[in-house]
Amino acid sequence: MAAVRVEEVLAAAEEQEAEKRRSVTVEKELELEFDLGNLLALDRNPAPAAGLRGAGPRREALLRELARDNTQLLAARLWELPAERAGGAGGPLVAQLPEPTFRLPREKPPPRPRPPTRWEQFARLKGIRRRKRTSLVWDEEAKEWRRRWGYRRAGGDPARAWLAEVPANADPQEDQFARLRREKRERVARNELNRLRNLARAHRAGAAPAAPLHPTGHQSREELAHVARVARVSTASLGRFQPRLPKEPAEPPSRGGGKKRRFEPLLGDLAAERGRQLRLLRDMGAKKPVLDVTRAVNKQLRQEEAEAAAAKGKKQSRRGKRGRRQQRVGRSGKKSGARRQQQPQQRSAGGSGG
Amino acid sequence: MRPLTEAETRAVFEKLGRYIGENIQLLVDRPDGTYCFRLHRDRVYYVSEKLLKVAASVPRDSLVALGTCFGKFTKSQKFRLSITALDFLAPYAKFKVWVKPGSEQSFLYGNHVLKSGLGRITENTAQYQGVVVYSMADVPLGFGVAAKSTQDCRKVDPMAIVVFHQADVGEYVRNEDTLT
Question: What is the protein's major site of localization (chain B) (predicted)?
Answer without folding.
Answer: nucleus
